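Dear support,

I submitted the protein below through the web form. The confirmation email said the job was done, but the results page showed an empty box. After a refresh the structure appeared. I'm attaching both so you can tell me whether what I see now is the final result or a partial one.
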Amino acid sequence: MTAATITPTATSVRPPLYKSLFAQVIAALALGIALGVATPDFAIGLKVFSDAFLKLISMIVGPIVFCVVVHGIAGAGDLRKVGRVGVKALVYFEVMTTIALALGLATAFIFGPGHGMNIDTATLDGKALGAFADNAHKLQGGGVGSFLLNIIPTTSIDALARNDVLQVLFFAIIFGVSLALVGGEKGEKVTSMIDAIATVLFKAMGLIVRVAPLGVLGAVAYTVGKYGVGSLRQLLSLVLLFYVSVAVFVLGVLGLVMRAAGLNILKFLAYLREELTIVLGTASSDAVLPQIMRKLERLGVKDSVVGLVVPTGYSFNLDAFSIYLTLAVVFIAQATNTPLSFGDLLLVLGISLVTSKGAHGVPGSAIVILAATLNAVPAIPAIGLVLVLSVDWFVGMARALGNLVGNCVATVVIGTWEGDLDREQAERVLNGKEIVDVTAG
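What the results page shows now:
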């Protein structure tokens, strides 16, 4: 699959600043904040831009995931390599998830963001949690068995229609493996067709992402207009602590991982700055899935590795979400004066390792997964979820950013392990000697 329709060279000229998607998104962020402060009622009405943009993204994510995973497996040729990459990726995901969950627990206990709130659970209104709680019970259901069964779609069309990425991924893996086994002329025809469809979908996503500034404007204006700043003061410590925790994880943990791969995390983040800015504004990493994959390919990671690791990571490698999961659980316990034993903490950690895998594609995913986790830890009152509802959007921005960076780093690392990373190409790109534009294709 072609990574970009424009092949950049060392002599490429950067476009004018006003044409840069990064600059446009930054301008939209600033305008959204200004409108939210100056005209909150009008700003709230701009949410339609954000909703429309996210619906456009949602419309195309499922088919793109299917195409890139199938193409990645069929294009790899050697199914043993596909299996090897898959096993390495899953092991890496579990290690990083465990570290992230432990970081959330440690941060909550060291800084105690919920201490002193002394919330009486009898005074909390649980009406706002109705839909989230229903989804949480469905997710929790029969435990691990139910979770595993839920990965299998009723039909492939149903999975695509509901945009359930985990189920789409499951079907795509089966389809891709089958396509590789068929091989020959028939297999080549289907593979070429999948590649052609993916090219068209990437072109469509390129058109959609051009309106990202409007999506960011609507999301930021609505958030500032609706919640303001003063109303969130009592939960400010939780939000700030989470942002700091994500920064520590990205710059510390992932920084060390990137250094082991021979690359610099700061240069890597600068390379992804446009995509990260869009994610910051929309609180959704789906919005930049195709661009991220193309940029990783232009960085020098083989397309078969990118096509397997990135979509899988969207469901199995949610680093920042994992930090939030354990941090929020302990925060709720602290705010409601609920003592937690060492056994309770181990239970939270173990349950979170499973529930965090179902986060992507679930409506209100953070609250739903958090509710499912709390339902498995009876010591903590689930009604405490009301406390974090009002700041979920703000937390969601850092969650999406951290998750995206974690998946990009994972792809580079797996590519390094497999010998599928062109290190010279990566150095040229990260040092700015080769300009990459994936929005023009």
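Response: this is the final, complete result; the empty box was a page-load delay. Confidence is low (pLDDT under 50) at residues 1-13.
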